[in-house]
Write a structure and sequence with these properties.
two-stranded antiparallel sheet; globular; ten-stranded mixed β-sheet; single chain; about 400 residues; alpha+beta
């Protein structure tokens, strides 16, 4: 994508609104809602917040990883009551799907303007059972898809996190410390109302669900130390320093700088650039660092120049390895905690990162700042996106 400055205002991509649902444990408070039912309220709330008319939406671009197919983006558009003229496109890059949907929409704006809703959704609670067909026609159920040829190594996520911990020398104590900080930051942010400003409440059998249910205020260093190794005998990756599966949705409104000014919105995230990289599948957790390195180099931006950093904390080991490779101190990332505390709603998580960056940028609206979103992806990939917060 050309640099924003090289494009006319009618094609400079900006994010003018970003919202999400509460992120709740799979098979918990949101288990009764299917993916399109999670996403539709976010779509309507985004249009109301941005002032864009439903009829001017060019497309709904949505990431999803474990759904049942059938184009959940189109289904959610219709569920939200958008005109039948608004299409939908579903993107699958597994954990990176939500961020990659935003990347794709930004490139579409750069190519020709328009108004796009982009993000991701995951309902792990209602995900269909999956099976291969045996030679006799009977189903052989499986838990996850194959991400890489077996000859290259296709480890489960937890085993891959152990591989990263060993490869980069990330100790159990560092992982536990980082995970505990994530919970403490998330608890503090919730108490301060930071999450409430970006969250669309959803109905449940017991009333409205308006808050994330993952952050644990009573978690201590001693409790963290009690978790046994979860994936490899005598390993360092535990349930305490790993994320949990979650349900949720997040999306943004992407349009041109010119249209944003016409809508009268006060501020935006200008999309400076994006990148996606591939790495060894056995070390899939390091993918985000490879993408971010290339992206920052292409933009002539140093890691120290980036003020806001959001990384998807699927595992503490991979988060610490990526941040270390980029020269970003762990204390600089995920100011309000991350997936270790909030949970990982696969296809939505990349869009949650962008939603968090816009909220954080708005805390000091008098300052222009750079913001970086990164996520590592199954199969040995990573996606990164660089933004500049601007007042309009």
């Amino acid at each position: 994508m050309p640099t924003p400055e090289a494009l006319p205002a009618e094609r400079q991509p900006v994010i003018i609104a970003a919202l999400r649902t509460p992120i709740c444990r799979a098979n918990g408070q949101l288990k009764h809602l299917r993916a399109h039912e999670l996403l539709a309220p976010v779509v309507n709330a985004l249009l109301a917040q941005s002032g864009a008319a439903p009829s001017e939406v060019t497309d709904l671009v949505i990431g999803n990883a474990v759904g049942g197919g059938g184009n959940v983006a189109r289904l959610a558009a219709l569920e939200a009551g958008l005109p039948v003229t608004v299409p939908g496109l579903t993107v699958d890059r597994q954990c990176g799907s939500g961020l990659d949907a935003i990347v794709l929409a930004s490139r579409l704006v750069a190519a020709g303007g328009g108004v796009y809703l982009a993000g991701g959704v995951e309902s792990i609670s209602t995900a269909p059972l999956r099976a291969h067909r045996n030679d006799d026609g009977e189903p052989a159920f499986f838990a996850r898809a194959q991400f890489a040829p077996h000859g290259l190594g296709d480890p489960d996520m937890g085993v891959a996190a152990e591989n990263v911990a060993a490869e980069f020398g990330i100790s159990r104590s560092r992982q536990d410390e980082f995970a505990l900080r994530s919970h403490r930051r998330a608890v503090a942010a919730a108490a301060d109302g930071a999450f409430g400003r970006e969250t669309v409440p959803l109905p449940s059998a017991s009333g409205m669900v308006s808050a994330d249910d993952g952050p644990r205020p009573r978690l201590t260093e001693a409790l963290m130390g009690r978790f046994p190794a979860a994936f490899v005998e005598s390993g360092t990756v535990t349930a305490g320093n790993s994320c949990f599966d979650a349900d949720g949705a997040a999306a943004v409104v992407l349009t041109s700088l010119a249209r944003a000014r016409e809508l009268g919105v006060p501020d935006a995230l200008l999309v400076l650039g994006t990148d996606t990289a591939g790495v060894e599948p056995r070390l899939l957790g390091i993918g985000a660092a490879s993408a971010a390195e290339r992206l920052l180099a292409s933009q002539a931006v140093g890691a120290d120049d980036v003020e806001l950093v959001e990384f998807n904390e699927a595992f503490a080991s991979q988060t610490l390895a990526c941040l270390g490779r980029l020269g970003i101190g762990p204390e600089r990332a995920n100011a309000d905690g991350g997936a270790l505390a909030l949970g990982h709603a696969y296809g939505a998580s990349g869009a949650v990162l962008v939603t968090r960056l816009l909220e954080q940028a708005r805390r000091t609206p008098d300052r222009t700042k750079l913001a970086l979103a990164m996520i590592s992806i199954a199969g040995g990939m990573g996606t990164a996106a660089l933004f500049r917060y601007v007042r309009l």
